[in-house]
Amino acid sequence: MVMSMSAKNNICHICNLCCPEGVRLVAGYICADCLIQISCTDVEDPKYAFYVAKLKELWQAG
Ligand SMILES: [Zn+2]
User: Ligand 1 center to residue 34 CA distance, Å?
Assistant: First the structure.
């Protein structure tokens, strides 16, 4: 297998898809698509709270 182990770490914490583009936080990874979704979501939207909760998990874990 040519695929390196690092590809495993590119699984997005929010959508659970493996994406090559994204940002790595303390405890995980978020893909570019989800970052766009977060920035497009209104703060009043229930989804926004979901995203924020997921982000907090990544910042606080470990
Ligand atoms: Zn994602």
Answer: 4
Query: Distance from the CA of 1 to the center of ligand 1, in angstroms?
Result: 25
The Å distance, Cα 12 to ligand 1 centre, comes to 4
Model confidence at 9: pLDDT above 80: no
Residue ranges making up the domain that contains 31: 5-60
Contacts of 9 (CB under 8 A, 6+ apart): 24, 29
pLDDT digits (tens, 9 = 90+) for 18-38: 999 999 988 899 999 999 999
Backbone dihedral angles phi then psi of residue 44, each to the nearest 5 degrees: -80, -15
pTM of the model: 0.76
From the CA of 6, how far away is ligand 1's center (Å)? 16
| Number of domains the chain contains | 1
